[in-house]
Amino acid sequence: MVTVDPGSGSEAVQRRRTWVLGGALLVASALAQLAAQGPLAPLHRAVDVLFVAGALVLVIGLGRAGSVTARRPLGTGAVIALAVVLLGLPFALDAVLRDADGYGSGQLIGVAGVLTMVQVVVTLMLAIIAVVQIGRIGVVPRPWNWAPLWALGVVVATRLLAMLRLSPLFADTADAAGALFVTGLLGVINTAAIAFLGIVAIVLGARTEPGSVAVYSSNAG
């Protein structure tokens, strides 16, 4: 075994800067989401902007070595498309709803409902592709390369439970205060999953240090 250092220091710096910055943006997104549930509701849009910014930093990287997808087309493209959907469709939805008065309002509201469903389905599909690619590529150390998949599972589960809780089928099972508490709790769990992902990225980035690389050769002696 021969130990060399073929530019590993610069690659470690790229990973450290990328993962710490991307993780910090994800944590900021989670904090903004908590604030948006209270008196700072206007921060709601900032949640998606911060999350998208963090995701893009992590997949594009501050240098190729920092990319958690190694800049491979499928995983990287899925996150970029996810960013477009998360930031683009809400503006289209707002534009539709602004015109949903007077003649044809019923049709416009129907279009808004379709756009919402499209956003949910497309977002989930792109997110699944992205987290599976991050896990399979393995740039992030094991087992944390699957942390995005864990977080996605928690987010999807909490969203489904919240929808089920608000379903008319369960409207009579508890009073309004109880339903509000459960919905708020699920929201906190959802936010914690995003914060967890950001913290993992920050910790892994902080632990990344320039160092030597072990190169194995079959020509012994």
Report on the structure:
The chain is an all-alpha fold. It has one domain. It has six helices and two strands; from the N terminus they run βααααααβ. The protein has helices at residues 8-36, 44-60, 73-98, 105-137, 147-165, 176-207, and strands at 2-4, 213-215. It has a two-stranded antiparallel sheet with strand order 1-2. Helix 1 packs antiparallel against helix 6 (176-207) and helix 2 (44-60) packs antiparallel against helix 3 (73-98). The longest helix has 33 residues, at 105-137. The protein is globular. The termini are close together. The relative contact order is 0.17.
Instruction: Spell out the helices and strands N to C.
Output: EHHHHHHE
Radius of gyration: 21 Å
Structural class: mainly alpha
Total DSSP E strands = 2
Average residue pLDDT: 77
Apparent shape: globular
Q: Give the count of structural domains.
A: 1
SS strand fraction? under 5%
> What is the helix tally?
6
Q: Note the main sheet.
A: 2 strands, antiparallel
> How far apart are the first and last residues' alpha carbons, in Å?
10 Å
The spatial strand order of the largest sheet comes to: 1-2
Helix content: over 70%
Low-pLDDT segments: 1-7, 211-221
